[in-house]
């Protein structure tokens, strides 16, 4: 505990600090609750994304195993090239997080008359799977940023609740006791001095 002065100025300083901590605490608690909800939502989105990826890859593997050969697999893979991954930004509980918009693929046409009937579906399924994979990377970064902010906010809430506010209360109590003792002592000294002055006068 930091050393304090037993003065009225210090008393006011401690009272002001306590008011400030008490005023900011509900805002921090609200931010913590919001972040907890967002971290849970982020975890759910990551899990749902993984399930979607697995389902798409199973569908794609099924198509290629049933109808394709090594040359068809190479053809499908060669027609899924990323041109750009588009992202945006969102503000959640005061922090900026990335958001996934879309994956743009290079435009690589193919002759539908010279390819098997399932190739269109296979290329689209692979593009969807790649889009989900890129979205997953963004979701992971969202989760990392939200979790880090939740840890920081939780530490601040604990600091205010368990350290700063109780510390101010204790300091205020100690200063009031000391000021009360000093005032009592001053009154007693004043009475003694008055009595001595009266005795001297008589």
Strand and helix layout:
Elements: H1 8-67, H2 70-78, E1 82-92, E2 95-105, H3 119-201
Antiparallel strand pairs: 1-2
Helix pairs in contact: 1-3
Structure at a glance:
With 202 residues, the protein is mainly alpha-helical. It is built from 3 helices and 2 strands; from the N terminus they run H-H-E-E-H. It is 75% helix and 11% strand.
Description:
- By secondary structure, this protein is mainly alpha-helical.
- The chain has a domain at 24-162.
- Helix content is 75%, strand content 11%.
- The protein has helices spanning 8-67, 70-78, 119-201; strands spanning 82-92, 95-105.
- It has a two-stranded antiparallel sheet.
- A hairpin with a 2-residue loop joins strand 1 and strand 2 (95-105).
- Helix 1 runs antiparallel to helix 3.
- The longest helix has 83 residues, at 119-201.
- The radius of gyration is 35 Å and the shape is rod-shaped.
- It starts with 7 loop residues before the first helix and ends with a helix.
Which strand order do you get reading across the main beta sheet? 1-2
Q: How far do the termini sit from each other?
A: 53 Å
How many DSSP-defined strands? 2
Q: Beta-strand level of the residues, as a percent range?
A: 5-15%
What's the total helix number?
A: 3
Report the average pLDDT across residues. Answer: 89
Measured on Cα atoms, how large is the radius of gyration? 35 Å
Query: What structural class results from the helix and strand content?
Result: mainly alpha
The percentage helix is over 70%
In the predicted model, the low-confidence regions spanning at least 5 consecutive residues are: none
SSE ordering: HHEEH
**What does the overall shape look like?**
rod-shaped
Major sheet, described briefly?
A: 2 strands, antiparallel
